[in-house]
């Protein structure tokens, strides 16, 4: 069962990476997902969370990046991707697995974080909130949480 789950997670990550890469020009938020093969939270919630992320990223505003903390080899590979995105320093203090960290794609500042153990509704709400905060900072010049319709990005 773990092998099937691992294969499914790998396929989902490839799909998310492909979707994220094709949408980079629209990217407003970079979502870094800290995961590890040995992480119980990841094992129990990863597949469901990935589906929720995909379902709530139809506009391509989010780029998903997997920060695999399973072992030294996976950490090195993930580190290269974080460096490419300019998030090495920003992610240096965030080592918890089973977590998603939302960053403003332009400024590379942390917007928020959430556990993948949260419900699909809570994950969707966190994504909407992160997107709104980026949109609000564009329209108002401030990085505050404004959920008013006048600040929605399109």
Word description of this protein:
This protein is α+β, with helices and mostly antiparallel strands. The protein has one domain: Glutaredoxin (3-Layer(aba) Sandwich). Helices cover 49% and strands 17% of the residues. Strands 2-1-3-4 form a four-stranded mixed sheet. Helix 1 (2-22) packs parallel to helix 2 and helix 2 (40-55) packs across helix 5 (120-140). The chain is globular and about 40 Å long.
Number of helices: 5
At the fourth CATH level, what is the homologous superfamily? Answer: Glutaredoxin
Q: Which structural class fits the helix and strand makeup?
A: alpha+beta
**Oligomeric state as shown:** single chain
Which H/E pattern describes the elements?
HEHEHHEEH
Approximately what portion of the residues adopt beta-strand conformation? 15-25%
Mean pLDDT: 83
Distance between the termini: 41 Å
Cα-atom radius of gyration: 15 Å
The CATH architecture designation is 3-Layer(aba) Sandwich
Largest beta-sheet characterization: 4 strands, mixed
Number of domains: 1
Q: Per CATH, what is the topology?
A: Glutaredoxin
Shape: globular
Strand order of the largest sheet: 2-1-3-4
């Amino acid at each position: 069962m773990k092998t099937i789950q691992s294969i499914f997670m790998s396929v989902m990550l490839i799909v998310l990476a492909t979707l994220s890469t094709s949408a980079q020009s629209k990217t407003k938020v970079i979502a870094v997902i800290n995961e590890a093969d040995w992480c119980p939270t990841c094992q129990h919630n990863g597949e469901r969370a990935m589906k929720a992320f995909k379902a709530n990223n139809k506009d391509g505003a989010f780029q998903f990046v997997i920060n695999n903390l399973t072992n030294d080899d996976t950490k090195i590979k993930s580190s290269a991707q974080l460096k490419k995105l300019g998030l090495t320093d920003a992610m240096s203090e965030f080592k918890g697995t089973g977590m998603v960290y939302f960053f403003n794609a332009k400024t590379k500042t942390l917007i928020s974080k959430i556990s993948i153990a949260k419900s699909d509704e809570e994950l969707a709400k966190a994504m909407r909130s992160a997107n709104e905060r980026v949109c609000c900072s564009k329209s108002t010049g401030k990085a505050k949480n404004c959920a008013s319709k006048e600040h929605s990005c399109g």
